[in-house]
Specification:
The protein is of the alpha/beta class and about 150 residues long. It is built from three helices and seven strands, in the order ββαβββαβαβ. It has a five-stranded mixed sheet with strand order 3-4-5-6-7, with helices on both faces. The N and C termini lie far apart (about 35 Å).
């Protein structure tokens, strides 16, 4: 059975690096998603308070939402982190997940859906998200540098 959406404050972020071993050598792998999440949690803790942030919250449809902020009015903002080389790429990767998390029947409808990545948003991507907001989808982009 799929666990329902249930906000639980707190976050446990993995390390910034790990190792992968092959026969030839050991490779340090940078876990960008964890670095972005750690920095974003610091920023959101300042904005909303640590007790209003939870990570890896079950979406109710088999996935888990990277970060959820519980607003004082009882609504929720969903954040999906996608390490990418461009805002366009991050949006392409995160958009389907965020829509599913918020709009599948019987799920918690988010106040805001926020795509998070390292690159600054470009003009075309900003226009695209603006158009989607004008259609009623609360989509936003947040650049987080590590």
């Amino acid at each position: 059975m799929t666990p329902p959406f249930l906000f639980k404050p707190g976050f446990a972020i993995g390390g910034n690096t790990t190792q992968a071993t092959s026969r030839e050598k050991t490779i340090d792998v940078d876990l960008q998603s964890n670095q972005i999440k750690r920095h974003l949690c610091d920023l959101l803790s300042t904005e909303f308070g640590r007790d209003h942030i939870g990570d890896e919250i079950p979406s109710g449809n088999g996935g888990s939402i990277d970060l959820v902020v519980r607003l004082t009015n009882g609504q929720f903002d969903f954040y999906e982190i996608k390490p990418a080389t461009s805002a366009k790429s991050a949006i392409r990767q995160a958009l389907p997940q965020l829509l599913e998390y918020s709009y599948r029947a019987g799920r918690e409808k988010a106040h805001k859906l926020v795509i998070v990545s390292q690159p600054a948003i470009d003009e075309d991507s900003a226009e695209y998200l603006g158009f989607l907001r004008s259609c009623g989808l609360p989509l936003y982009y947040r650049s987080v540098t590590t």
